[in-house]
């Protein structure tokens, strides 16, 4: 096994017609070999086969490698979270 993908067909915010990727991981020694893209495509096919029209995920802003994968796979930013530290 080189990676895992966890998808829920029901979105955590109950967004209609939208599944959610809770986690996608590829073992570090296998990253960059196309396994992440293959997992993502397989997940999309599975969600599509269930009749769900869209798929959403969260990604940390600094995870540029994952962001590149998602953007090149057709994902777009729909929300953005921001934080301000109140203690120094």
UniProtKB/TrEMBL annotation:
Lineage runs: Bacteria, Bacillati, Actinomycetota, Actinomycetes, Micromonosporales
Matching Pfam families, A to Z? Answer: Acetyltransf_1
InterPro entries xrefs: Acyl_CoA_acyltransferase, GNAT_dom, YpeA/RimI_acetyltransf
* SUPFAM superfamilies listed in its UniProt record: Acyl-CoA N-acyltransferases (Nat)
Instruction: Enumerate the spans annotated as N-acetyltransferase domain.
Output: 1-88
- Name of the protein this chain belongs to: N-acetyltransferase domain-containing protein
Stretch forming the signal peptide: none
The protein's UniProt keywords, in alphabetical order, are: Acyltransferase, Transferase
Query: Which organism is this protein's natural source?
Result: Phytohabitans rumicis
PROSITE patterns xref list:
GNAT
Q: Which GO terms describe its molecular function?
A: acyltransferase activity, transferring groups other than amino-acyl groups
Q: Which domain of life is it from?
A: Bacteria
